[in-house]
């Protein structure tokens, strides 16, 4: 039997809006592509997608068309910076409002048709802990939680981690501190989050790195471009590149969850062992 192609699936999430999660998802995808990875970026904020706006893209087809049965996943792929493939949404679409778990399963199961052409799938979830966030996140191999060094961000990140751990037994989380003024501040934000989870021996939180507050990010946002594309030597881009290199060295999962079809299986069955501790 032919061996299935393993795909690294990263869910980028956060407890609240304003942490820079979508900016991270876009630029991380581009950085991974620059390292030679074949990357697909899914805008998982189904009701209020923003990646199209951040990159000044007007896609001909979106997830709404997929849900309505008007196109295949391959037909809605949009080529973005550095050759990444984008799967975009439609803001304020009635079709995407109030989708059920079965719809989330259908969206992700459709990735089977492009599985062999993808090395990394980056899922930019919505903020908070709604059903789409929980479904996409618990189906991923690696959960990256984005925080800022402010109480609301840290408390909401803790609430999200608690929900994913308590309801779905996800035990391993990677944490990135964003919009920091120094590496020390990034570590400090992580330490605050770690302190909130210290009594839970069932959790493993690992610090990935920090991304600095950088005017280059604001400039890129106003230009509706990716900062890694137009300011590759900025402080933000250099730190992001280091994080991307670290992520590219994470081991691929060789269990069934190393294949795209793992999405449907895990969403339907939600096995209790998902997210068990691993090193790295």
TrEMBL record:
A Pfam family the protein falls into: ParA
Can you supply a Gene Ontology BP term from the record?
negative regulation of cell division
Q: Which GO terms describe its cellular component?
A: cytoplasmic side of plasma membrane; cytosol
Q: Does the keyword Transferase apply?
A: no
Q: Recall the GO molecular function terms of this protein's record.
A: ATP binding; ATP hydrolysis activity
Q: Which residues form the signal peptide?
A: none
Keywords in alphabetical order, please: ATP-binding, Nucleotide-binding
Q: Which SUPFAM superfamilies match?
A: P-loop containing nucleoside triphosphate hydrolases
| InterPro entries noted in UniProt | P-loop_NTPase (IPR027417), ParA/MinD_ATPase (IPR050625), YlxH/NBP35 (IPR033756)
PANTHER family per the UniProt record, alphabetical: CELLULOSE BIOSYNTHESIS PROTEIN BCSQ-RELATED, SEPTUM SITE-DETERMINING PROTEIN MIND HOMOLOG, CHLOROPLASTIC-RELATED
Record-given protein name: P-loop NTPase
Supply the source organism for this entry. Pseudomonas helleri
Question: What taxonomic ancestry is recorded?
Answer: Bacteria, Pseudomonadati, Pseudomonadota, Gammaproteobacteria, Pseudomonadales
């Amino acid at each position: 039997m032919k061996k299935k192609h393993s795909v690294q699936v990263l869910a980028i999430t956060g407890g609240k809006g304003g942490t820079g999660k979508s900016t991270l998802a876009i630029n991380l995808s581009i950085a991974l592509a620059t390292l030679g990875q074949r990357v697909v970026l899914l805008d998982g904020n189904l009701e209020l997608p923003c990646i199209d706006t951040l990159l000044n893209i007007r896609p001909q087809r979106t997830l709404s068309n997929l849900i309505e049965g008007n196109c295949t996943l391959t037909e809605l792929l949009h080529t973005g910076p550095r050759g990444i493939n984008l799967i975009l949404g439609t803001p304020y679409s009635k079709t995407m409002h109030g989708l059920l778990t079965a719809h989330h399963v259908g969206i992700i199961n459709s990735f089977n048709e492009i599985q062999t052409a993808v090395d990394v799938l980056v899922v930019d979830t919505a903020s908070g802990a709604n059903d789409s966030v929980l479904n996409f996140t618990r189906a991923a191999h690696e959960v990256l939680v984005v925080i800022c060094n402010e109480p609301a961000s840290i408390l909401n990140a803790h609430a999200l981690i608690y929900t994913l751990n308590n309801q779905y037994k996800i035990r391993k989380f990677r944490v990135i501190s964003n919009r920091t003024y120094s590496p020390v501040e990034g570590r400090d934000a992580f330490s605050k989050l770690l302190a909130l989870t210290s009594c839970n021996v069932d959790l493993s939180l690992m610090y990935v790195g920090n991304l600095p507050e950088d005017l280059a990010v604001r400039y890129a946002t106003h230009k509706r471009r990716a900062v890694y594309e137009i300011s590759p030597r900025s402080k933000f881009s250099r730190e992001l590149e280091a994080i991307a290199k670290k992520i590219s060295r994470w081991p691929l999962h060789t269990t069934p969850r190393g294949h795209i079809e793992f999405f449907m299986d895990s969403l339907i069955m939600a096995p209790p062992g998902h997210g068990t501790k691993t090193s790295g």
